Structures are given as structure tokens and as C-alpha cells.
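Example 3.2
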Amino acid sequence: MSAARVGVYPGTFDPITNGHTDIILRATKVVDRLVVGVARNAGKGPLFSTEERVAIVKAEIEHLPAEARKRIAVKPFDTLLMQFAVDNGASVIIRGLRAVSDFEYEFQMAGMNSRINSDVETLFLMASDRFQFISSRFVKEIGLLGGNITPFVSTRVAKRIAEKFDGNRIRRRR
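Structure, written as C-alpha cells:
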């Protein structure tokens, strides 16, 4: 019997979008176990704390089919991605690509990661067509301006964002 293939899907998930959830579900079809790594990355000025993002991602995973759900773990990390991968026994890094603009950055990152540890492969999954335009940054901007974000995130995540922005939304001038 061969060893289980472990994959790591890293990101800040600030917030987790329907596109992220789609990649998570699809990644479970190519790895035996998936670790969703929630990066601390305070440099990006996240809306949610690391602990909040981990809890939100875990809550979203609970709504996936049981077969996928039981093979997913969610963990925070603040180390090099390749160290996190090794620490979790991963042989694959999962990265989602939305558009050509993502490719150049991801290609460079995959090359650097390969130099750090050539035993860990990077697997790119193209975003499903209905999610290619979604980004966490746009979701936060729309939420801040009081727009409807439910086409881009679950109603659970939309509620958490609304709570974060409550009283802090930018009012539209009339």
C-alpha cells in the first residue's frame, strides 16, 4: 500500500471565497489528504485575524460533502511555505489560477519553492469559469461600500464581513 498523497493549499483566505472553496473541493480529487494552510501574513493587513480566518475556513469546510470534508485539515502557519509542507508531510502544493495575470507570479513562486525543496511539486488548478473573477480584495471592497457580496462568498462569510464592517461602511453620497 502506497503512502497517502498529502497536499497543501496555502493562502490568506481573507476572506475565503466561493472560488477558494471550489479549489479546495477539486483538490480533494487529486490528493488523499488536504491541509488548508492559513497564512498569518500580517503584512497584507488582513480584515480578519488568523484565528478568525482559520475558524471561518473550518466552518466553510463543514458544508462540503462528507467524503471530502473528512480528508481536510485547516491549520495556520507563519513559516516558509515549503517548511509548512514538509512539517505536514505534503508532496504537493495546490495553487489556484484565475487568469493569465496570476500565472506569472505563481510561476515564479513555484520556481523558488522548487529550489527550496525539489521533492514538493506545485499543482495548478484553473479556477472554474464562474469563479475566475472573484478575489478576496474585491469582496472586501464591495463589502466596505455596502454592496451585495453573496454571489462571491457564502452567506455565512457575507454575514461575518457585514459584522466586521458594521458602522464602518463608506456611505454613498446622494
